[in-house]
Amino acid sequence: MRSESDNERIESFMAALGKRVQSAGAVYLTGGATAVLHGWRTSTIDIDLKPNPEPAGFFEALATLKDELDVNVELASPDDFIPQLPGWRERSLFIVRHGAVEFFHYDPYSQALAKLQRRHDRDLADVRSMVQSGLIRPTKLREFFALIEPQIIRYPAIDAASFRAAVIEFCDANE
């Protein structure tokens, strides 16, 4: 098993990935990587990310970097688990550019909704940190949930009623 990734390890990973790929692209970090880079956590088990557009040589670089840097890398983003929010790319937050690759935090509203759907304690703490740091507003979070709610039926693993209840409960408690 590889080591957990702290801020320094995640930054080293981004720099090395930017050097290794052979074309321009964008990589969206999500989950624990976002939490660590914002200072809400000291480490994360996985560096969750989504390439879009995928730089040439991306997967070859991942194959070697995960061993060289002793990091766990997962291809995962909120839209793997909940319906994609319209405008997610525009709301994603720029982190840094290394070589021809731009790194972003995946849209905070998408991340928050995916975390509320899972309802793990660590995820709920992350969403509270998003509110406290001003990255998201509970009223806007409700609006985004309303936009995707009709599409939840396409995600059979999601219990729509409990997801809705989790969003309402969180927003009521944090407004």
Offer a few descriptive terms:
175 residues; alpha/beta; 2 domains; 5-stranded mixed sheet; 8 helices; 5 strands; globular
Give a brief rundown of this model.
With 175 residues, the protein is α/β, with parallel strands linked by helices.
Structure in words:
- This protein is α/β, with parallel strands linked by helices.
- The protein folds into two domains: 7-107; 110-174, no CATH class.
- It has helices at 7-20, 32-37, 58-68, 88-91, 108-118, 121-132, 138-148, 160-174, and strands spanning 25-30, 46-51, 72-75, 93-98, 101-105.
- The model has no long low-confidence stretch (mean pLDDT 97).
Layout: helices, strands, pairs:
Layout: H1 7-20, E1 25-30, H2 32-37, E2 46-51, H3 58-68, E3 72-75, H4 88-91, E4 93-98, E5 101-105, H5 108-118, H6 121-132, H7 138-148, H8 160-174
Parallel strand pairs: 1-5, 2-3
Antiparallel strand pairs: 1-2, 4-5
Helix pairs in contact: 1-3, 5-6, 5-7, 5-8, 7-8
Mean pLDDT: 97
Distance between the termini: 40 Å
Q: Helix amount, in percent?
A: 40-55%
Number of domains: 2
Compute the number of strand runs.
5
Stretches with pLDDT under 50, minimum 5 residues: none
Main beta sheet: strand number and arrangement? 5 strands, mixed
What's the helix count? Answer: 8
Tell me the structural class: alpha/beta
Order of secondary-structure elements: HEHEHEHEEHHHH
Instruction: Specify Rg, calculated over alpha carbons.
Output: 16 Å
Indicate the overall shape.
Answer: globular
Strand line-up across the major sheet: 3-2-1-5-4
Relative strand content: 15-25%
